[in-house]
Amino acid sequence: MPSFASEIKRQLASRTASGTASDTRRTHRQELAGLMDAAGEWDASGVTFSTRNAAVARSVVRLLRAEFGMHSRLLPVGPDRFGRARYAVYAGGNGALQAAEELRAARSGLRGFAEKTAYLRGAFQGAGSVTRPGRGYHLEIVHRDEAFVRRVAALSRAPLGVTLRRGRWVAYTRSADGVMTFLSQLGLHDAVLEYEARAVLGEAKANANRVTNFDAANAGRTAAAAARQQEILEALDPSELPRALREMLELRLEHPDASLTELARLGELSKSAVNHRLRRLVALAEKPAVR
Q1: Residue 90 and residue 92: Cα distance in Å, rounded?
Q2: Per-residue pLDDT tens for 151-161?
Q3: Same domain, 173 and 60
Q4: Where are the alpha helices (DSSP H) in 158-233?
Q5: Other CB atoms within 10 Å distance of the CB of residue 7
Q6: With 60 as the cut, is the pLDDT of residue 22 above it?
Q7: Helix 146-155 and helix 28-39, axial crossing angle in degrees, nearest 10
Q8: If I label 145, which of 95, 206, 274, 275 is the partner at 20 to 30 A Cα–Cα?
């Protein structure tokens, strides 16, 4: 099952391809500039765009052809460290170098809401992620280039914090209003409605919990423990783990808010097996030699 962020990116790429959004056709160049700033690598021979989303990769091929008449190649490349497929789009020659200059100009000359939003659409497709509705509120853009991340934060209608995390810059929001405002700016109104529906459901559950004297302090400790576990596990190198632990690490990182029961269902394991493997992973991560 694709992640919610992958589905969001697929929707954005499809909107660009179909031209259904009101300002899409006249803002292709700004969107392509955001895509290339987020996930493109330029050198003397041309540009290579990398992504784990096939729909986004195909969108880059179409945009390069539509905006610059460039014929690019879409190639599957080696999987990432968790075995997930990756795709690369390569375009070379003088046309690519000229395109680089024009895209830099498009980025520096962003004017009006439509052009700024188009750049954000591209930036999110290339470097963004967002949690699934019902799993909390967390949207972020991650990149090694501080200037790019601060540009994204400046263009967003939602206030985004900017921080340096493990050597990469992050523009993020962890609020319901922030996530929904950002998605609304991108034109993803169905996703916003889904978040709003989940928010209403969450409020109803919260009221029911208060009526039954739910222990909020205990829930806070549980959430903090889960966040701490996630931080610890991210320090592990999957290549150094046995297959069973590597698969459990990937499952937990892909579903940071899932309960043990949910993880057991997703991994087709018993709840006790999930608990045992997570304990082993945490123990390995806490050893000084593994850090």
Answers
A1: 7
A2: 999 999 999 99
A3: yes
A4: 176-185, 189-211, 216-233
A5: 16
A6: no
A7: 140
A8: 95
